[in-house]
């Protein structure tokens, strides 16, 4: 499957936005300029690295296209120099973050199906692509990953979107409609969850164990 | 080597028990329902993922058999809804955890030998299979991995069991006897260590460095 | 490319020194003997594991040569029993650590080029080889990785050295001169940065985001 220019542009946009989020965490942790760039790159590329290593698509995709290396580096430098301005863009960043999640889970599920995985496995790989970078970012910064703490924002819409793609294509529904539906569900859910302050159920009772 | 139904059942049981341990850590960290399920899955599957990515057995095994995906998901949901009851089963869980360790190190060492690794490398991969999930669980939860802190419970019996399998099969001893011996050594050691409160030697003198 | 005995000796020396640094962190964290050995091995081998899994060189190199497994184990045991003496060797250890970084980034970039990666991707893989073990060490020990906090010591010289190798060989400059230059730049920079207390720029303004 030759990815179209549109798809690549969207994928790079997702990578850029995720890298910004990594750079902002690094600024908050008072890392220096190279620490900011490295954390930005790891966040932007981590999900795809994990997916490609797990399904055996090596060398991993980001290493064979220089744009995937340059885009998160630029995002890191931008964050380093202009983080106060980015802070004022908070709501806009959140929208981009939601778009990035949608793009990454769809791209991840598609690639996993391409490598012959079952729909359920492809849905899980889609989720891993969408949230892997953020998990690595938080672990490196010494935080419990936000994806585990606020699953309504990440795990639920990510898995929903990835499942729509994986099962929709498996049952040979029209690809364009399936991908559009997955994108709307994932991004819409993410934005609604943030806007309406949705929360997932917490365990009842004390953690007696 | 076609794994028998017995072997698969035992392997799934190990995955289930490890996933329970991941779910319990998630409950203690007050994660929500999806956080619990994700941490359960990562704990149950992480060791095998690491092993398969390192030896090049991709797509990793857990992604090509839906049972390996459904079992830890169910374990996570069970933990979420019934964690107080699971807490009362504490001693029983510990026994299952020991059985899981035994099964995973044996399965890990066997698979590594199958991929042409040397006995020492296969023993190390067996240990990685047995403890990898727990390491990822603890890192995600912001803890220093228990396998590093209480090595008599995990690293020592795991490496012992994996070494018996790896070197026993390398020197062409009877496979069934080798695996039985490895299982008894690993699980027995783990249970004895817990029951008798064994401890491994600590560094002497202050950490002057 | 058949690695010469000299190259392998130097590579093992780098692995040994990195493993010492992992063992010392483990002693400081009061881990027991097996915890010290495991953290030493993970630190000495982690960078190469990451690189090989990302470029698809599996089974990863360390698993197919017993010396790469025995050397960090010995380093871990040495640290456990003689850590006060190692502490007095502090400055010497720092020199070895710098040499290890230089060797690892060169070896990493060479191997990545060998697997057909672009120069930029090879430079990044060289950096990952040089700092990956330390990142895993710090994450397991519950620390924010030192490579992110003190990038003048690690990320900058590592990336500089790896870039010299990757682009120098790509443009077909004489390999020996390229590698020598990369080694001098990387190790010299690292030692100068430590000796002169260099610091990389920090983000200006408060982290408003």
TrEMBL record, chains A, B, C:
Q: Where in or outside the cell?
A: Cell membrane
The domain of life for this entry's organism is: Bacteria
According to the record, the signal peptide region is none
Membership in a protein family:
Belongs to the UPF0126 family.
- Give yes or no: UniProt keyword Transmembrane: yes
For membrane topology, the record states: Multi-pass membrane protein
Name the record gives this protein: Putative membrane protein YeiH
Q: Which organism was this protein described from?
A: Nocardioides albertanoniae
> Entry's InterPro entries?
Gly_transporter
Q: Where are the transmembrane segments?
A: 6-26, 33-54, 66-86, 93-113, 119-140, 152-171, 177-195
What Gene Ontology cellular-component terms does the record carry? Answer: plasma membrane
First-listed, main subcellular location of the protein, grouped into a coarse class: membrane
């Amino acid at each position: 499957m030759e990815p179209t220019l549109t798809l690549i542009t969207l994928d790079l946009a997702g990578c850029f936005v995720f890298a910004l989020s990594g750079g902002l965490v690094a600024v908050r942790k008072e890392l220096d300029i190279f620490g900011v760039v490295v954390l930005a790159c790891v966040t932007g590329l981590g999900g795809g690295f994990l997916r490609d290593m797990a399904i055996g698509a090596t060398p991993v995709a980001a290493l064979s296209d220089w744009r995937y290396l340059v885009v998160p580096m630029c995002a890191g430098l931008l964050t380093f120099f202009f983080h106060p301005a980015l802070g004022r863009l908070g709501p806009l960043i959140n929208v981009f973050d939601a778009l990035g999640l949608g793009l990454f889970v769809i791209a991840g599920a598609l690639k996993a199906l391409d490598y012959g995985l079952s729909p359920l496995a492809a849905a899980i790989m889609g989720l891993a692509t969408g949230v892997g970078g953020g998990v690595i970012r938080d672990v490196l910064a010494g935080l419990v990953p936000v994806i585990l703490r606020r699953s309504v924002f990440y795990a639920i819409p990510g898995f929903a979107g990835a499942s729509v793609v994986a099962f929709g294509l498996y049952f040979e529904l029209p690809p364009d409609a399936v991908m559009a539906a997955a994108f709307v569900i994932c991004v819409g859910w993410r934005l609604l969850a943030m806007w309406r302050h949705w929360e997932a159920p917490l365990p009842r009772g004390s953690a007696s164990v």
